[in-house]
Structure formats: structure tokens, C-alpha cells
TrEMBL record:
This is Mothers against decapentaplegic 7. Residues 16-181 form the MH2 domain. GO terms for molecular function: I-SMAD binding; transcription regulator inhibitor activity. Pfam families: MH2 (PF03166). Keywords: Transcription, Transcription regulation. SMART domains: DWB (SM00524). The keyword S-adenosyl-L-methionine does not apply. The keyword Coiled coil does not apply. It comes from the Eukaryota. It comes from Tinamus guttatus. GO terms for biological process: anatomical structure morphogenesis; cell differentiation; regulation of transcription by RNA polymerase II; SMAD protein signal transduction. One of its GO terms (cellular component) is heteromeric SMAD protein complex.
Amino acid sequence: LLDSHVLQEPGDRSHWCVVAYWEEKTRVGRLYSVQEPSLDIFYDLPQGNGFCLGQLSSDNKSQLVQKVRSKIGYGIQLTKEVDGVWVYNRSSYPIFIKSATLDNPDSRTLLVHKVFPGFSIKAFDYEKAYSLQRPNDHEFMQQPWTGFTVQISFVKGWGQCYTRQFISSCPCWLEVIFNNR
């Protein structure tokens, strides 16, 4: 969904990921570049710093988007560890995650994983992501960031088990693109 050239600016190697916030099919706000080992992404947090979705102005007047935005609360924490990137659900509602490194590499479709409040999941595994790369694969060469992207939706899920088939039908969601350098 994001253009791959966004991450290929010369000399910009200090970030380990970039986060985009979406409401349905519309990106809201700027790309958030992450340098610190962990990042809190939240709607409202009395004290705290990170990516505050509540401060972003949205043109979306959909009641469902407004309702889900208000339920994000303390949101999630992304943490870069030695073994990969972990997502901790700090909200009072489930989050849903899709990542190439969470599933069987031979699977034709990636599963969406539900993470309940108070639980964590290793959403991205660098070693596994590199092993998924096929240097001679033409499709991989055209889309070098596919295996390095994780999608996370708040409150509402998508995929085979849900009425929403695509994440772009979810009211509030994140796209996390990892720097593979």
C-alpha cells in the first residue's frame, strides 16, 4: 500500500520501521518514522509519548470509524527485540495482525491473528523474513517490502473469518513497514 521508495532515501538508515495510520482506504497523518527501540501507538494516554492517533485530524465522519477510534485507548506497543518485533495489546479490545512471518511460508493466504487485551505476539521475525525472500523471484524483485510489512487493525478483524475481506475495510488500522537494511 505504501510506495517502497519512501524508505529508500539516501542516508536515512536510522529508523527500524515506519508506521502509517489508516481509516478504511484513507491514510491519515504523516508516516511516523521509528528510531527508539519501542513505540507506543495510542489514542489517548494521559502521560506518555509516542504516536498519538487522537491528535490526528481525520476527515472521516463515519460513525463506525469514530466509534472504533474512541476504543483504541492505550493502543499497542511495538518493541524491537533481538529475535524480532513484538506487539503488546495495551487496549481494552482485541487487535488483529497479519504478517508473513507469523504463518507457514508455504501457505497461499496469510492468516489474520487475533490478539486479546494484555497479550503480546511476535509480529515480525527478521530471520524468517529474510528466509522468505527469493532473490530470483520476479514478483519479489518488483515488491521488495512485501515480507517486511505487518498490518494491524484495532477492534475489528478482517479476512476469511470476517465479513470484512480486506484490511482497507477496517475502520482503524496500521501499516508497519520494517527497514530491511
